[in-house]
Specification:
Chain B: Keywords: Cell membrane, Membrane, Transmembrane, Transmembrane helix, Transport. The complex is a heterotrimer. Chain A contains 10 helices and 10 strands. By secondary structure, chain A is an alpha/beta fold. Chain A has one domain: Rossmann fold (3-Layer(aba) Sandwich), CATH 3.40.50.300. A 6-stranded mixed β-sheet of chain A has the order 6-7-8-3-9-10, with helices on both faces. A 4-stranded antiparallel β-sheet of chain A has the order 2-1-4-5, covered by helices on one side. Chain A starts with 11 loop residues before the first strand and ends with a helix. The N terminus and C terminus of chain A are likely disordered. By secondary structure, chain B is mainly alpha-helical. Chain B has one domain: MetI-like fold (Orthogonal Bundle), CATH 1.10.3720. In chain B, helix 6 packs across helix 8 and helix 8 runs antiparallel to helix 10. The radius of gyration of chain B is 27 Å and the shape is globular. The mean pLDDT of chain B is about 90. Helix content of chain C is about 75%, strand content about 0%. Chain C has a single domain, classed as MetI-like (MetI-like fold). Chain C is mainly alpha-helical. Chain C is flat, with a radius of gyration of 26 Å. The chains are: A alpha/beta, B mainly alpha, C mainly alpha. Chains in contact: A-B, A-C, B-C. Chains B and C meet through helix 1, helix 2, helix 3, helix 4 and helix 5 of B and helix 1, helix 2, helix 3, helix 5 and helix 6 of C.
Chain lengths: ~270, ~270, ~270
């Protein structure tokens, strides 16, 4: 991307974004959103509110049906082929199910984050430059898993696997991290470790972070800004201080605390 | 990520040795090279022979439909052979499987020898068995049926005893606790669990036996296979193609019927 | 007085279709057994059986190794060569076919559907008949056997590979796509590591089957140990039949054990 970037332009900008699924379900409705560099944004809402759709629209794992999404001034909605892959390279993603190759080593999983930076032949032959390997080890050091570098991914616990996924995003040198329910399948202790890792990365490396959570308490504990979704629409967007239980009860008819969500799911 | 505490000084684990992979690869390449030499394989010969094959295929078309009348009796004989061979094999497989299953026959000196015998039976391919039985009993479908019986015994007994070892032990325990003897345990707690599987294995073996019975005639063991030699020997390729087509049609029909039945069973 | 349980729970009546099935099956068996000619069996059957049994117990040990010419070891080795090369060829052909035939890798159902059709067509085509066709092309000998095994095995191996590809975890593909990888890189980093152990295991399994098949290719002149066996059978050289059978049994047993041990470690 060689074109001029205004200094204070939004990192991510969604203009009138809508998404209608082929079966006519509305995923997103007229979303206007602007997120600045270094923000730590939590997207909350009940399951089915469109949190996952919103995140996947940003790196275009899902196509939108209307509107435009810009990443640092470049439209990802209209990007194709190589251009799209270059944009995606700057956006790391962390998934609820970790999405590691379970049979591959931890190091290889982390290096997989580097493939977007090199040509096909080089990556297929596994000829990563030394800097890349160093980068991978640095990323593993940051999540405290360096001694597991040559272990198979499926030998690790769920929390450790999620931290490998974070290392993969770090090695990718992404400028934005999208995390889709990263702690939904983890216990409270590992949840804290993973969330702390994400927070440190956001604070120390100034990586813009957008995270989907269904637990408002967790969102308030870590994020600087909270976005509430309901039926594909933004119903709340503001700093943590404003995201009080009273406000959310007003909007959703109930709180979005972990225990009440569990009740609903039960 | 220029954090000094994360720098390269962090102890990296030593990578696992790759010698094993290289060794395996070299061994494999040597084996392939030896095999290519030992079988006089040459791509050149294949390319040169290709026109011959095309010529052969050309001579096979159109198939001689009227030949159907001549080979119909042999085809019916093929079905008979497969049916009887599978039945005999299935009946013999019942005691064999019970004796091989370690959870039903707990005595090691019983199930080990029977498993050894079963493995021995399974080493000899059906066409070889047929050739031997032809030497013993003379030409005709009887040696073919015997060969298929022995082959079916091996296959059905193996599949069944493996399924037997995976059955739910609860009912076995329940019946043992009520004072049931070996036969009573088999009848009341094993057979109900295994009969659908056993029927399915038998049908599957029948599918394989139809294919096998169609070629046993090459060694004089009855069925349609005999006509391959007749027609190829006389260079009547349009008749050969008729045999092939007829066999394919039969095999597909039997497969479809058998698959439907197996789906209903399980 | 004993109460009539029937008035409380009626015993379910057996279905009529079940009886029809039994009758149909019975008639099928009557038809099958009626059609088999039981006469014409050799009176020498018992004697020949005894001879073969004796041959198995007093095998022609000298045949194991002959300094010059055709012996057991060379026959078995050639059988092994045929099965190794046949398996390698079929694996190389099966991998691209499996990716074409998998619904999750092919762009349209039409392509994956036709890939699956092709595989099942190859599967139903008997390998012996394929060998006959290849003999016409490259002449009798081991090479024809290699080609027949190589092509026929694609039917089964391609099917097994396809199943393996269709049940992979899609997560890593999503992750690599999100990281900006192209199609080949996704294939290499997200798909292949998942399917490779399965591919290898199935290849070894097919190799076990191919060794068995290779022993019978000689029957129609496509090389291997089958040729001297058929010859020994027709010349009633029972001691030699015995040693060859013994050789085949030992070879296949060893290969099954080795291959089984490797397959266990792969998964």
């Amino acid at each position: 991307m060689t074109h001029h970037r205004p200094e204070n332009a939004a990192m991510i900008k969604l203009t009138n974004v809508s998404k209608v699924y082929p079966n006519q379900t509305k995923g997103l409705q007229q979303i206007h959103l602007s997120i600045d560099q270094g923000e730590f944004v939590a997207v909350v809402g009940l399951s089915g509110a469109g949190k996952s759709t919103l995140l996947r629209a940003i790196n275009r794992l899902h196509d939108i049906t209307e509107g435009d999404i810009e990443i640092h001034g470049a439209s990802i909605t209209r990007a194709e082929g190589r251009q799209l892959r270059m944009l995606r390279r700057d956006i790391g993603m962390i998934f609820q199910g970790f999405n590691l190759v379970k049979r591959s080593s931890v190091l290889r999983n982390v290096l997989a984050g580097r493939v977007g930076h090199h040509g096909t032949l080089r990556t297929i032959l596994g000829l990563f430059p030394k800097q890349d390997v160093d980068l991978a080890f640095e990323a593993l050091a940051r999540v405290n898993l360096i001694e597991k570098a040559y272990a198979r991914a499926d030998e690790l616990s769920g929390g450790q696997q999620q931290r490998v996924a974070i290392a993969r995003v770090l090695a990718q040198e992404a400028k934005i991290i999208l995390a889709d329910e990263p702690v939904a399948s983890l216990d409270p202790l590992t949840t804290k470790q993973v969330m702390d890792d994400l927070l440190h990365i956001n604070q120390e490396l100034k990586i813009t972070t957008i995270i989907n959570l269904h637990d408002i308490d967790l969102a308030r504990a870590y994020a600087t800004r909270i976005i509430g979704l309901r039926a594909g629409e933004i119903v709340f967007d503001g700093p943590v201080e404003e995201a009080t239980d009273e406000r959310f009860t007003e909007i959703y008819g109930r709180t979005l605390r972990a225990e009440s969500v569990q009740e609903i799911n039960a | 990520m220029a954090d000094p505490k994360l720098s390269l000084s962090a102890a990296r684990p030593t990578p696992p040795s790759r010698m094993k992979h290289y060794f395996t690869l070299i061994l494999l390449l040597v084996l392939i090279w030896l095999s290519a030499r030992g079988t006089d394989s040459s791509l050149q010969e294949l390319v040169q022979g290709f026109p011959n094959m095309l010529e052969l295929l050309r001579e096979m078309f159109p198939p001689k439909w009227s030949y159907l009348d001549n080979i119909l009796p042999a085809m019916l004989e093929t079905i008979r052979m497969a049916l009887i061979g599978t039945t005999f094999g299935a009946v013999l497989a019942i005691p064999m499987a019970l004796l091989c299953a370690s959870n039903l026959t707990r005595l090691k000196w019983v199930h080990y020898p029977f498993r050894f015998l079963l493995n021995l039976i399974r080493t000899i391919p059906d066409l070889l068995l047929a050739a031997i039985f032809v030497a013993i009993f003379g030409l005709g479908p009887v040696p073919g049926i015997l060969a298929l019986s022995v082959f079916s015994l091996g296959l059905i007994a193996k599949l069944t005893y493996e399924a037997l070892e995976a059955i739910d032990q609860g009912p076995l325990e329940a019946l043992t606790s009520t004072g049931g003897n070996w036969i009573q345990i088999i009848v009341y707690s094993v057979i109900p669990q295994i009969q659908a599987h056993f029927m399915s294995f038998t049908l599957y073996t029948f599918e394989i036996n139809i294919r096998a019975a169609a070629i046993l005639g090459l060694v004089g063991a009855g069925g349609i296979g005999h006509y391959y030699e007749v027609t190829l020997g006389l260079l009547e390729y349009e008749k050969t193609s008729m045999i092939i087509l007829f066999t394919l049609a039969l095999v597909i029909c039997i497969d479809v019927i058998s698959m439907k039945l197996r789906e209903k069973l399980l | 007085m004993t109460p009539s349980w029937k008035s409380i729970v009626a015993k379910p009546k057996p279905k009529k279709s079940r009886w029809l099935l039994v009758i149909a099956l019975f008639l099928l068996y009557v038809w099958a057994f009626m059609g088999i000619p039981y006469s014409g069996l050799k009176d020498t059957a018992l004697q020949v059986t005894r001879s073969i049994a004796e041959g198995l117990f007093s095998p022609d040990w000298d045949y194991v190794y002959l300094p010059d010419g055709e012996d057991l070891l060379r026959g078995l080795l050639s059988t092994l060569y045929i099965s190794i090369l046949g398996t390698v060829i079929s694996t190389l052909l099966s991998i691209p076919l499996a990716f074409i035939a998998s619904v999750n890798m092919s762009s349209t159902k039409l392509i994956s559907g036709s890939g699956k059709m092709l595989l099942s067509f190859i599967r139903t085509f008997p390998e012996i008949v394929m060998a006959i066709l290849f003999i016409k092309a490259v002449g009798p000998g081991s090479f024809a056997g290699v080609l027949a095994l190589g092509l026929h095995s694609v039917g089964m191996l391609g099917k097994l590979f396809t199943d393996e590809v269709e049940q992979i975890d899609k997560g890593p593909i999503e992750a690599l796509t999100a990281a900006g990888a192209n199609r080949l890189q996704i294939l290499w980093y997200a798909v292949l590591p998942q399917v490779l152990p399965g591919f290898l295991s199935y290849t070894l399994y097919r190799f076990e089957i191919n060794v068995r098949s290779a022993t019978i290719l000689g029957v129609i002149g496509a090389g291997g140990i089958g040729t001297p066996l058929i010859f020994a059978l027709s010349t009633r050289d029972w001691d030699r039949v015995g040693i060859i059978l013994l050789g085949i049994i030992v070879m296949i047993t060893i290969i099954d054990i080795l291959s089984g041990a490797i397959r266990k470690r792969l998964i």
